[in-house]
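Troubleshooting log. The previous structure file for this entry was overwritten by mistake, so regenerating from the original sequence record. Sequence copied from the archived sheet and checked twice against the printout by T.R.
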Amino acid sequence: MALVKFGGGPVDIRGSMAGNTFSRCAGGNYIRARTKPVNPKSPLQNARRARVSYLTTYWSGTLTEQQRTDWRAYAAATSWTNKLGESININGLAAFLRLNSLALLYSSTVVAAAPLATGHAGGVTLAFAAENDTTKLQLAEPGGAFDKSNDGHMLMIFAGIPAEAGKISIPKGFKYVTHLAGNELAPQGFPFEMTAPYTMAAGQRITIKAMFKDESNRISGPSWAQAVAAPSA
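Regenerated output below.
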């Protein structure tokens, strides 16, 4: 399904329609022929599907009616941004899946209670360095909303496939790398060394993104950072 924004005629379209796929990159809007995605059932895809299936069953069979009501109320009072940059509302199940599909990456415990406050967690700023012919990433201390001394804070880090530095398209193949938990008694030291899911060659651009969970169990939008792999010492 394509999303269409009208002004003096359509001013933005995202998605697929009539054999065409509409999207946008740093160079502007573009159209390509619609292709039917393959279904290789990779371990990553299977893991994602298993999490969604498990959480959907958990929603209907384990949560209490009051907990589901609380999630619906949170979703109704919180706006999200769609592909066209417009504010929309999602339902309670979608909000529950959004948080817990991330939470199950670092914990086996489902967050059953809806966030204590409406809205989203604050943004985070990232900076890191990458080294040629290795999988080493050196993350500087994040800025913004993440507090390494707050026991309720969690930062989840993902890395995309390395690309040539001149490419402007958004990287693909983002995989989960690690998480950083706030800890009042033993805050994480920085720079923090992470192991990327891909080997990087000198001159390639590496993109990471982070999702932040605050003490109210709210999730932020993605934060992004890029670096060019430097020659190894």
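Residues 124-228 form a domain with the Immunoglobulin-like fold (CATH 2.60.40.10). Archived copy saved in two places this time.
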